[in-house]
């Protein structure tokens, strides 16, 4: 699986981009014919079903094979989320054309209701990306600010997990949260 921070960094800095979302992503991958027959003859999957342990990695591997020579140039793919980004507006239609040709060749379908074309700002993997860089989605910070103070160990762990999501924007986060370490080590405090 790709490192999300690297992908977010690579997706930022484009003058224009299109955000694409795979339509029922996992169900677009066919299962190998010799893996389909069911011993009991009851039901046979011909497409990858949701819920399998390695399905995310398998889907990502398929996407990497489909877009192998475009990834890192103007395409970023994280499972079923695709960004086609262009440093210059003039190149964007050409980049989209190449991407769509690749999708058509491999029978990959996108969900038109979740796609955004020719935008200057968009959300990718929980962050807002644009030409100038990366920002935190305001809804994420709002959710943290509106969280009630933790009253037990489990709630503290949950809060720290939310804050950790924003670690790249908070200098010395580990130093600032170090005060909670003794509380996290306590036993039988939920």
Structure description:
It holds the Pfam family RVT_1. Residues 1-129 form the Reverse transcriptase domain. This protein is α+β, with helices and mostly antiparallel strands. It folds into two domains: 4-136, Alpha-Beta Plaits, CATH 3.30.70.270; 138-185, no CATH class. The protein contains seven helices and seven strands; from the N terminus they run H-E-H-E-E-H-E-E-E-E-H-H-H-H. The protein has helices at residues 4-11, 55-66, 89-106, 138-145, 153-165, 173-177, 181-185, and strands spanning 16-21, 75-78, 81-86, 116-119, 121-124, 127-130, 133-136. It has a four-stranded antiparallel sheet, sandwiched between helices. Strands 5-6-7 form a three-stranded antiparallel sheet. Strand 5 and strand 6 form a beta hairpin. The mean pLDDT is 84.
Number of DSSP E strands: 7
User: Strand content of the residues, in percent?
Assistant: 15-25%
Order of helices and strands: HEHEEHEEEEHHHH
- The residue ranges in which pLDDT falls below 50 over 5 or more consecutive positions are none
Average pLDDT level: 84
Major sheet: order of its strands?
Answer: 2-3-1-4
Let me know the CATH homologous superfamily of the largest domain.
Answer: Reverse transcriptase/Diguanylate cyclase domain
* CATH class categorisation of the largest domain: Alpha Beta
Count the helices. How many? 7
- What would you call the structural class? alpha+beta
Rounded to the nearest angstrom, the radius of gyration is 21 Å
Amount of helix: 25-40%
> Under the CATH scheme, which architecture of the largest domain would be assigned?
2-Layer Sandwich
